[in-house]
UniProtKB/TrEMBL annotation:
Keywords: Acyltransferase, Transferase. InterPro entries: Acyl_CoA_acyltransferase (IPR016181), GNAT_dom (IPR000182), Plant_NAT (IPR052810). This is N-acetyltransferase domain-containing protein. SUPFAM superfamilies: Acyl-CoA N-acyltransferases (Nat). Residues 6-184 form the N-acetyltransferase domain. Belongs to the acetyltransferase family. The keyword DNA repair does not apply. The keyword Protease does not apply.
Amino acid sequence: MMMRNIVVREFDPNKDCLGVEDVERRCEVGPSGKLCLFTDLLGDPICRVRHSPAFLMLVAEVGDEIVGMIRGCIKTVTCGKRISRNTKYTTNDIEPPKPLPVYTKLAYILGLRVSPSHRRMGIGLKLVKRMEEWFRESGVEYSYIATENDNYASVKLFTDKCGYSKFRTPSILVNPVFAHRLIVPKQVTIIQLNPSDAEAFYRRKFSTTEFFPRDIDSVLNNKLNLGTFLAVPRGTYSPDSWAGSDSFFSCPPESWAILSVWNSKDVFKLEVRGASRVKRTLAKTTRVVDRVLPWLRIPSVPEVFSPFGLHFLYGLGGEGPRAAKLVKALCGHAHNLAKERGCGVVATEVSSREPLKLGIPHWKMLSCDEDLWCIKRLGEDYSDGSLGDWTKSPPGLSIFVDPREF
Ligand SMILES: CC(C)(COP(=O)(O)OP(=O)(O)OC[C@H]1O[C@@H](n2cnc3c(N)ncnc32)[C@H](O)[C@@H]1OP(=O)(O)O)[C@@H](O)C(=O)NCCC(=O)NCCS
């Protein structure tokens, strides 16, 4: 059934907040008896896109009633790499030529919702098409979405009706924040890098990783960024002897690892709804025991049945034989920071083939093995021709997940 009187227009924060929240609430109702995750946007419907360089939110209206919405944002990211034409590489060179990033303008669609009472009327499709018009006008080359693998309606909408194809399946790894602190091994030194040092570090090591944002400096300087931490074997570098990333890379230790922490807690809150009283009581008991007897180190279930915040770990990487161990130490450090700041969980998202996944502690029951990313090419004439079509390229080992979009 197609409805004629649907108006799609830009979201107006002065009058649309309540209507949008209402649709949001109606969409979160899961099947009865099953757990569902409720997201509280803390009164700001644009919160999940507002930190991107360009963003837009549209609403669909029938009469006076808001019945659907969509958010989108645009930025420039790495879609591949090439060898600089200016680099001459002879067999006498000790170092091979450095690959350079190929950038593209990428759009991301998120937070598409249609009120259950108005589904299968073409509203979702209309919202996506209007959003894509804005992308095209802005010179976007590729557009992508992330959805759960088993969200049949959404996968069908994007792949069957909108021309998207399945692209990457990164894993979302979630670990609870316990009532006890985690121990960072003594053999590991953790150094906090300032934003400009972190920027130099990331540009040097990660700029050819797919989805690396060219404006990484604005991510690192954002007030939601809580810091970038580097882990090295004890005795190699220390916070006192730290002389910047350039000096570090002139003589790097055999192994190192890095990650940054993003304060999603101030952006949105989550809540698990629909749990039985028995489950709640069990969870509460483990927490109480963990708080009272922390030395037992009981893995307490976090307080997920009332609204909780999270920290998101991003820019995670490392090199050397001990990199996974160093990542684990960094995750312990990040856990303790999350505990101090009252978070319920710590989350990260990495490529399904990420070699350092081994070092990231997580609970399977809270994590999502395959987050499905679907992509579409909107324009053909923008990026460096040497790369070809990104949508057809094989995945790399790693991806850079932008915390602004989690
Ligand atoms: C996904 C969602 C936005 C679709 O909105 P909608 O307005 O019902 O979608 P449309 O009417 O425009 O459907 C367009 C096409 O998508 C596909 N589709 C949509 N819902 C479907 C469903 N429940 N089952 C199968 N296919 C579906 C169909 O191909 C449909 O075309 P058709 O009706 O001609 O067969 C809506 O179901 C929703 O809000 N779901 C909950 C939130 C969500 O999952 N958001 C997506 C996260 S990215």
